[in-house]
Amino acid sequence: MAFKIDLYAPANQELARVIREELTESLVNTTEGKSLAERVHSIRRSLKRIRASLRLFRASLPVKTYRKENRWYRDTGRLLSRYRDGEILQLTAAKWGESQPEANLWLEKLRAEQATELEIEKVLKEVRQRLLLGQARCGKWKFLEAAGFAPGFLKTYRRAERCGREAEAKPSALKFHVWRKRVKYHGFHLKLLRDMEFAARRLEAVEALGKLLGTAHDLAVLEEWAKANGVEKASRQSLRARRRQLEQEALEAGIPLFAHGIQVLSEGLNLTS
Question: What does the alpha-carbon distance between residue 90 and residue 236 come to, in Å, rounded to a whole number?
C-alpha cells in the first residue's frame, strides 16, 4: 500500500500498518535489492517515514513508547550515515564539477574515503537486527485513547514555522539544516494525509522547498569537507556563494508557505488545535 493513511480507519491501526509496511520493505533491502547505494537510500528513507509516522500519531502512544521508538529508529539510521553521507558528497562534487572543473579533482579523494561494500554489508546486518527488534515491539504497543493526528501534525508545523523564522533572523548553515529537517517531516505528514485536498495542494510546494534546502545543505557539507581538506579559498567561496543563494531562495519560498495561522491550517485540514 502507498505511504498514506486511510482517513476512515482507526488512527492506531493506520500507524501500526504504515510502520509494518516500511519495516518490511527495509528488511528486504538489508539483504537484497539493486545497488548497495539504492538499498541504503531506501532503508534511510523508510526510517525517516517511520519517524514521521510516529510524530504524526504521537498523541496515540504513551510518551515513553514514543520517545523510545523515535530514538531507536533515529539511531538505526545513523548507523548508515557514513556511507550515505559519502555518497552525497560524491554526487554533490560531481554536480558542482559540471560548472566548476576543479571539483572533479576532489572526487578521487572522496571515493578513497568512502566505506567499502564489505563494511556496509556488515552494518546492514546490524541494521537488520534492530529492525527485527523494532518489528517485534510494534505488535505489542499499548495505545492511548484515539487522539488522531491533529496534535502531531500541528506540533511539526509549528516547529517548521519557528525554524524558518530563526533561519531568516540569523542565517547559518546549521539553522537552515535544522529547518530542512522540520520541513521534511511536515512534507511526510502531508504525504500521509494527501487524500485530503488541502494537504494534496500544499504537498508539491513543501517538497520543492525541501529540495531547495537539501541542495543547500549538500553544498554546506561539501564546503566543510573542502575546508578540512585544504581546498583553495576561492573554490570554497564559490560554494558558499551558491549555498547562500539557495538559502535566500528557500526563505523567499518558505516563509510565506509557513505564514498560515494555525486557525487557517486547522480549518483546511479539519483539525482542532
Answer: 16
- 182 and 120 both lie in a single domain: no
Read off the C-alpha cell for 53: 509516522
Give the mean model confidence (pLDDT) for residues 117-130: 93
Per-residue pLDDT at 147 exceeds 80: no
Q: Are 209 and 250 in contact (CB under 8 A)?
A: yes
DSSP 231: -
Is there a single domain that holds both residue 23 and residue 140?
yes
78 pLDDT band (50/70/90 cuts)?
very high
Three-state secondary structure of 147-174:
CCCHHHHHHHHHHHHHHHHHHHHCCCHH
| Domain's final residue, options 116, 148, 180 | 148
Using one digit for the tens of pLDDT, what is the confidence trace for 197-220? 889 999 999 999 999 999 999 999
Residues 119 and 183 in one domain: no
**33 with 161, same domain?**
no
- In single-letter form, the type of residue at position 252 comes to E
Cell numbers representing residue 149 in the block: 493526528
Report the number of distinct structural domains present in the chain: 2
